[in-house]
Every structure is written in C-alpha cells, then in structure tokens.
Amino acid sequence: MTMEKRTSPRFPLVVGIDYAGEPSTVLDHTENLSGAGLFIRTERDFAVGDRVALVLSLPDLLEPAEVEVEIVRVRPGSPGLDAGVAVRVPAERSADRQRLERFAQDAAVQAGWLRPSYRVLVVEDNPLVAGMYASAIRRLVARDAEGTLGAVAADIATDGNEAFARLLAQPPVDLVITDLYMPVMTGFELLERIRAEPRLRQLPVVLISSARAEDRERARRLGANAFLQKPASYVDIVGTVRAFLQAGQQPGAPMAARAVPRGGGTTTTQETRGVEPERVDPEAPAAGD
C-alpha cells in the first residue's frame, strides 16, 4: 500500500459501509478514504486476502458506490482503538478503482476537504480509454493536494453532441480534451461549435488522435489549443492539463510545436496554443497503468 498512499491522498471521512447482497445496516464505516483503498471500522471477522464487495454511501449527498476490495491488514480492537481492516482495490479491478477514485473525490468535496477548483471534460467514445484519461486527470488531486491546483474533477462524454450539451450546462468546464474521430459528432465539429459559441469561445480545447498532418492543419485553422498524438501517455495528459489549468482561458493564437518527454526517453509531438506546459516526471507511468 506504500506506493498507493503516495499517489492517492487519504481523507478522514466517515462514510457508511454495507456489504453487497446483505441487508443494509450501515453499522460499519470508514476511518479514512482514498482512491486506492480505505480503512473500515468493523467487528466482522476478516482474514488477510479475503475479497468482499462493499457498498459505500454518503446519504442524501452521493449515490452509493459498489466496489470489490481485498483485505490487506486486520487491526484487532483494544482499549481506545476500534477494530477494523485496511482494504485496497485489486490491481485487475480497474473499473472499481476508477469508481472508488470518483467517490473519494466527490465525498472529499462534499465534506469540504477538497474544493473542486477545475473541471475537465473528456470526450471519447471508447469507455476504456475515456476512463484511463479521466483517472490520470483525477490523480492531479494527489500530486497537487498541497499545491495550487486543488481538486480536479473529470467528466466524460461519449461523443461531440453529448459534450456540447454538457458544456452549456453547469458546473462550467475549464478544459476540453477530445478525440478526433467519433460517432454522432466528430472532434472537428465539436471544436467548430465551441468556437462559434460566444460563451465557450475562449475555452481551451485539446485534440487527441493518431491523425495525419492535414488533420493537424485543419485543427490549427479551427482554433485547437493543443494536439496530442495517440497513444497519449500519463506524462502527456497530466502535463498538458496542469499547464492549461494554471494558464486559464486561452485566446486563439498560433500553435507552436514542442517535444514532450515520455517514459523510456522517447518523445511525442505536442502542439500547443498560447501555453507552455510545465515539466513533468518522465518516469511517470502511462495513463491507466
């Protein structure tokens, strides 16, 4: 759990715990909560290695979240110290990990531990890729929990039409990261509509695609702020998001090509408009690792 504690901040939140398939009693609750795992105060008999499906709840504030976890430590009860277990989401349960990350962040915001300073909209028709991008963005909470960014929320839309409707709704979005080729409405069409809408005209838009040179040129003409080549790494996503969010809204300006460090010493072409991305750790794992 050592590495997970470094990458996922823990919050002292009391969240009700039920067990999937059993009557709701909410007798057990969390002592702390993070996107990697949690500590549960419970009198139940568990052994290290047990797996259990939890239902986390914050009544009247958040929808319950069901996740499968593995027991990694058992703490016996003693005078002044309640019994309990430390759990983590198994490595192969990536969807549960993402669900717990979202719940932990939303619960922290509701409790006032984190202020949702920024909101990123990820537009991607592949749910696995969208989840990896969103997970990488939400980890900015961990990397900057004591810095200047604060909480970063990540919403997901599956096509340009859904994304544009979300952009016209509340809460406002600070940055759009969109795939280029999608059903219903492409990234090009979404970009055109954003630039034509006065309320969104200054909104930064990042395009991600394994596209041809002519597609980059078209994106440039339409007013894209950045272009990332697929597959986008954790370094690409986090570095670009951090830079744009710190810079704020970016007016249209010529894009300038630059090389962004990637793991293994390679580089990928990133074109940016009106912003200089911050240096990021070249040893960071790829998005979704």
Please, could you describe this protein's structure?
This protein has 289 residues and is an alpha/beta fold. It has two domains: 2-92, Thrombin, subunit H, CATH 2.40.10.220; 115-273, Response regulator (Rossmann fold, 3-Layer(aba) Sandwich), CATH 3.40.50. Helix content is 28%, strand content 29%. It is built from eight helices and 13 strands. It has helices at residues 2-7, 94-111, 127-138, 140-143, 160-167, 187-196, 213-222, 234-247, and strands at residues 16-19, 28-33, 37-41, 51-58, 62-75, 84-88, 116-123, 151-157, 175-179, 205-209, 226-229, 255-261, 267-273. The strands form two sheets. It has a seven-stranded mixed beta sheet, with helices on both faces. Strands 1-2-3-6-5-4 form a six-stranded antiparallel β-barrel. Helix 5 (160-167) packs parallel to helix 6 (187-196). It is elongated. Residues 1-6, 142-149 and 251-289 have low confidence and may be disordered.
